Amino acid sequence: MNDQMPAPPQPLPDELWGEEWRFASIPAGDFWDMFGDRPIPFLSMPPEFNPVNLGIASNTFIPGVVIYGGRQSMQLASWVAERKPQTHIYQETEKNLAGGLLLNDKSDQRWVTLTFHDQTIATAGQRYQQRLMAAKGLHFLLVQPDDSDVTFSGLWLLKA
Predict the structure, then answer these.
(1) 4 part of a folded domain
(2) d(CA 133, CA 123)
(3) Which domain holds residue 148?
(4) Does residue 3 fall inside a structural domain?
(5) Count of domains in the chain?
(6) Could you report the per-residue pLDDT of 83-97, keeping only the tens digit for each?
(7) 122, 98 Cβ separation under 8 angstroms
(8) Whole-model pTM?
């Protein structure tokens, strides 16, 4: 057991910041059908994370974050894939005002992928965390060039 404090989160490299992002959720019963056979260059959907295998009801919403990377979309997806992400968790920094999302990788490094100072977004972040608990820790990170939902650069199904 590691009793050391985790290293402070590192900022995402400047050239990788996406153009926009949003919280999202997908019903557990639809997730595998939506993405299971799509040609996504960086795809991690371990069978053991299939909501059916985890006993998650089909109408439970799986929370996630969608990052629109624009021209950096493939570069961002490649960077995330190299980190071998484990979790992507909302972190509140000031009560109901500011927060961010931390990407935790297999080597216990943490990366700040998003930050914000907005009440509405903080409320959405709290809802993200509530859905995360309802979904038994299952969540996703989706990187795509834009909001067309035609092309995807990377998808990771993660579990806290």
Answers:
(1) no
(2) 16
(3) 20-159
(4) no
(5) 1
(6) 999 998 888 776 555
(7) yes
(8) 0.89
